[in-house]
From TrEMBL:
Coiled coil: none annotated. Residues 6-200 form the Radical SAM core domain. Keywords: 4Fe-4S, Iron, Iron-sulfur, Metal-binding, S-adenosyl-L-methionine. It comes from Ruminococcus intestinalis. InterPro entries: Aldolase_TIM, rSAM, rSAM_sf, rSAM_TatD-assoc, rSAM_TatD-assoc_bac. It comes from the Bacteria. This is TIGR04100 family radical SAM protein. Gene3D superfamilies: Aldolase class I (3.20.20.70).
Length: 200
């Protein structure tokens, strides 16, 4: 069975689903089957809430400050389990901060706006901006949805309104002028932009 909870650097990560509407050219899933202390992050089937709760019960949270919803898939593809897991962790470990790492396509995946509801259970959100235009986004992220970039930006607007902390992220492998354009988009929206170093 794949790891549901694993440790990467100083945080606990929750790997709730392998489903994702994108096929990003840079996706780490293309290069390796696991990260951090996980053995594999490929589920034979996506975990049920009972399996997730058991993983939470069995995990030693001592010394950790944060749990991040981020695995080998898009967490909002498992919206009900994402919310139920956040509720369960908050109940059992109220001092642990909860963060969602997302491609920002939760609204189109779930056919409804999801930022407000998620903000009730999760402290902060990091959204993969990835690039600076719809055309480039379609080339790099290869989403199954049309107008995915616009949908991600709409989610980000909502997230900024509802979450305690919202940030965009990009990876530093894109051209400098695209980084600048991303910075402008983030600045115009009043959202912090995190520029991550690429790690294969
Ligand atoms: S959105 Fe994330 S999980 Fe999905 S393909 Fe892109 S990098 Fe991989």
């Amino acid at each position: 069975m794949a790891d549901i909870l694993y440790v990467y650097k100083t945080s606990i990560y929750a790997n709730l689903t392998n489903k994702c509407p994108c096929r990003c050219t840079f996706c780490i899933r293309n290069n390796t089957d696991a990260i951090g202390n996980a053995d594999t992050l490929w589920h034979k089937h996506d975990p049920s809430i009972e399996e997730i709760k058991k993983a939470v019960d069995d995990f030693d949270f001592t010394g950790f400050k944060e749990l991040v919803f981020c695995g080998y898939g898009e967490p909002t593809n498992a919206l009900d389990n994402l919310i139920a897991t956040a509720q369960y962790v908050r109940e059992k470990h109220p001092d642990i901060k909860l963060r969602l790492n997302t491609n920002g396509l939760g609204d189109v995946i779930n056919k409804k706006p999801v930022a407000e509801i998620l903000s009730k259970y999760i402290d902060s959100v990091s959204i993969s901006l990835n690039t600076c235009s719809s055309e480039k986004y379609d080339e790099v992220c290869r989403p199954v949805f049309e107008n995915a970039y616009e949908s991600m930006l709409k989610f980000a607007t909502d997230a900024k309104k509802y979450f305690g902390h919202t940030q965009f992220s990009i990876v530093d492998t894109i051209p400098q002028e695209d980084i600048k354009a991303c910075q402008k988009i983030a600045d115009d929206m009043g959202i912090y932009l995190r520029i991550r170093k690429y790690s294969a």
